[in-house]
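cache lookup: miss for this entity combination. No prior model stored, computing from scratch. Input as submitted by user K.M.:
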Amino acid sequence: MTTTKEPSRIAGIGVSPGIAIGPALVVRREVVAVTGITLANAAEVAAEIGRFDEAVSRSVAEVDGLIAGLTEAGNDEGLDILETQTEFLTDPQLRADVVQQIEEQFRTAHDALVGVTDALVQLFLNMDDAYMRARHADVRDAGDRILRHLGGRARQTRTYPEGCIIVADDLSPSDTIALDLTQVAGFATQMGGPTSHAAIVAKARGIPAVVGCVALLDGIKEGERLVLDGQAGELVLRPDDATTDIYREKQQHFAEQSAWLKSLRDVSAVTKDGCAVQLLANISEPADLDQVFENGGEGVGLLRTELLFLGRDSLPDEEEQFGFYQKIALKAGKRPVTIRTIDIGGDKEAPYLGLAREENPFLGYRAIRICLDRTDIFKTQLRAVLRASAFGNFNIMFPMIGSVQEVRAAKAVLQEVRKELAEEGVPFGAEMQTGIMIEIPAAAVIADLLAKEVDFFSIGTNDLIQYTLAVDRMNDQVAALYDGFHPAVLRLIARVIEEAHRAGIHVGMCGELAGDPHATRLLLGMGLRSFSMSAVSIPRIKQQVRETTLTDAQCIFEAAKGLDSADEIRAVCQSVN
Amino acid sequence: MIFKEYTILAPEGIHARPATALVRLVKKFKSGISLKKGEKTIQLNSLLNILALSTKGGDLVSVVIDGEDEAEAASAIDVFFKDLTA
């Protein structure tokens, strides 16, 4: 019977980006049932235990054979999965549980193993951690392998037609290894999450994949045409020609984009004449770090800590904050992370602070001004950051600094906290450097004085621009006046960089201007060597750095100096050398 | 008997790959080696038990090593936990 069906879409979780177009190949897991047979006597019990041990041995031998095959092929991810499976197969706890069920409940080895595996699968599925939940598949996989050998069945091998899209209820780790990935265009599963083996392998191999597609198998027939979008996490069933064309174009675009990113990720940010530049990212939480590494960021130039404080009813205590910073420290490892202390004010939602509504929150009671007043809040944060710094490479900086006295006061509190921790015998990173944000024009003007007080400056361009030009860019009527290329802003930035160099301290930039490719050469020309931006901007800025020379950058800066309008300066910055 | 304490430095805890390495390491020694997290104690020769403990980065665990080759086992375990990072 043939029926013409309309195209339809199925949503899931995209775990490996890219577009696949091809025929569906449907894979289903065999359902294993309990037999209910009861053993008659002690001899049968002993025989069943023997059969179980025998099946485990044969399973281990089978996996050893697969390992030998993969070693030859140099497939490392597959090897890890199989080495782990060997340990599951021979796990003393697994055997003890199975033997107990055979001996005490007179169940067959088959039934005992099904029972034990099901219980373990449930145990893992109930865990609070997504990674550990996904391990239920490894347990199930090991159990299934032993079951097959108990039943005397050999592993069946499937063949995959070239360019097919695998559509499965679930792919076991073993399935994932068995997949001939050179033939498969993509895969979609009904079960599974972002940390399943299928997802990890797909990502490592650059094969588009979507998991967690509810009711996937109800709608798809073997051989039916499919489009799989691993970025959007979507499948299109029976796409018409127009839809297919749109996705072919997307496919092409994605291929070009990823080739470009790949070509930049692992190369260093060095100008043509050999000047190395540090490219960092601005982040808000631990999970953001993945994207930083994917885009080739060397570390974190700005960790905003507001996320810890917003959208809640009470202050986060020291332990909660410590956990947050520690996660970041462990994940970043040796890479530098600069933490900005709370930058909160009347415009942000933290009702428990009891901040009054202000006419002009950006000129009001906020950031370091609150911290120096409410030292209880400040000290808690500093304690948590210092304790976590023992696990990573942290620097700390204070926002909204407008005077030398504020820096000294903030440093005094930090010193007090250090002393307390030392007295309590609590470990913390002794190397942690202290810096300030330069975002108030006053700070830029007295950069020479401030430089004597700190280890580094970080220029926050967003606030520096709005304060220097007295423009609220959220106000449509004046937003056009907000311009980072305004000569006043650029003079302040150049001055800050110059004074930092004169004092021999580090200077970086963490505002939007740092991620603007048109500003890269100009800032390099001013002497800036450290840029922090949103992770996705890093490849573009790296490309800028790699295509320029220091001489060219200095020429741009010299040329910009004599100009009196932002538009003219921007034009010089965009000129091709 | 040797008693050791470690903070788990791997941000995501002990994942399958390092857990496999740990089990294999432990099996090389004759000593009984157990690990305690909070109220739970497990034998370190079982991958299932290590994973079921679901350790997280920053967790404090203690290891007890008891047997004829405990000194060698303890130093090997020490290296394992110090190398266990991202």
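stored under new cache key. The CA atoms of residues 33 and 65 of chain B lie 5 Å apart.
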